[in-house]
Amino acid sequence: MNLKRIAAVLPLAGGIAAATTGTSHAQVAPMAGSCELRITEVQARDLQETPTDEIYLRVGDERTSTRTFTEGQTREGSELGNADQITEFIAPGGFVVVSVVEDDPAVDAVIGSFRVPCRTASKEQPVSGAGAFYEVPYVVTQLP
Fold this sequence. Notes:
It is a single chain. By secondary structure, the protein is of the alpha+beta class. It has one domain (40-142): Immunoglobulin-like (Sandwich), CATH 2.60.40. Helix content is 18%, strand content 47%. It has helices at residues 3-20, 77-80, 83-86, and strands at residues 35-39, 41-46, 53-59, 62-63, 67-69, 74-76, 87-90, 95-102, 109-117, 121-129, 132-142.
């Protein structure tokens, strides 16, 4: 065996091992200036179909569970789904689209949609269309 060759290869092998160690569990920190949207409630003000509407939300690329609403009823965001379904990351300068949807047997009816920008806010967003009126309170927080 050539000792010079072994001596040259060992540092290289150590560098490769150091470079690849831990890459399978790397965590990515949020981008500076990014935001998080959280739906806090959904309020039924005027139903599309009396006596009840079956409503779900699309929050970015997530879909919440369908819940039955009566006129005047308020549901907490947590009643519509888990944290992943009612929160969404917003990139700096970007936005997330939120839609209120009536779950119908034949074709779902989009009552309305709105865009939420990456800007700190606490707001009640009115959403109307398809003969219904809802309000969707939400909070946008700046991520560290």
